[in-house]
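Notes from the 1:1 (GR / supervisor)

We went over the backlog. Supervisor wanted to see one worked example end to end before approving the batch request, so GR pasted a single chain during the call. The sequence is below; no edits were made to it. Supervisor asked that the structure be written out right there so they could see what the output format looks like.
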Amino acid sequence: MSKKNLTKEYYEKNYQMWSEKKTNSFHHEKTFSLFNSLLKDKASVIDIGCAWGIHVPLFLGIGRKLRYEGMDIANSFLKIACRRYPQLTFYQADISDAKTLPNKKYDGFWAGAILMHVPLKDWEQMFQNIEKLTKKGAIGYLSLPTEHPSGDKVNTDPRHFTLLTEKEQKQIIKDRGWKIIKKGTMDGFTQKGIWKWYIVCLP
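Structure output shown during the call:
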């Protein structure tokens, strides 16, 4: 089974645990506020890897001026998201597989702690797909780990993680021609300072 499919299978099996354990929607509050301030009223945003809708409360509150849609690879997560937020639109899609993506163009994208699950060999396609999903000059948010988030449980975690140094992350973003507007460091749920976040503007 491919690394990507192992990750999908893990979330399909463990969706209930994650949806009950990881409920702090406002973990990204400060960075979301910056992201929100750069978008116009009624700007459309696609939440890449929305899971069970963990970041939806940010969009319904601070980001209430935005038009939200979510996508995730795991159907089990999406069933919870649709039940909790029936007024919103969600898609089952894989950001590294263009055939699965919604046929729309968004003003911005939100990718909080998700792109690292895509194997590095697929990042070129992943970035192309993000560009296809967004309009010119779109604003995006992404966060990526420099270390494995599972800490001492790394050997029992079947999920795939693409781990890059901050320098490597920044270089990949710049090589796409994406402008880094803001950047910073964020703690994980169990480890300090392993997440780097970027607010970007696409060409």
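Supervisor's comment: The helical segments are 3-21, 29-37, 56-60, 75-84, 123-133, 166-175.
Batch request approved.
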